[in-house]
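haha ok so turns out i had the wrong file open the whole time. this is the CORRECT one, sorry everyone. sequence first:
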Amino acid sequence: MANSKGAKKRVRVIIKKTLRNKIIKSRTRTAIRKVVSAASAEDKAAAQAALIGAVREIDRACTKGVYHKNNASRKKSRLTKMVNRIA
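then structure:
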């Protein structure tokens, strides 16, 4: 357990940051799920609309430091390929 005043503050800060990261990750995963479900239903218009939102959320998570830039780039690339495969 934290003994010093500074260590106790770090625990509080980490709890806040963990909560923020969890919210951002959850929002991003929801956006990705929407793209995947629209793509699996072969609905190109809905998939493209969902892709725009997902890319926005992934970029936001990347700038906040939740995802590494290469990880974010890979996610965006895979989603875009998935949407482009729809006839």
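The domain at 21-84 is CATH 1.20.58.110 (Methane Monooxygenase Hydroxylase; Chain G, domain 1).
again sry for the mixup
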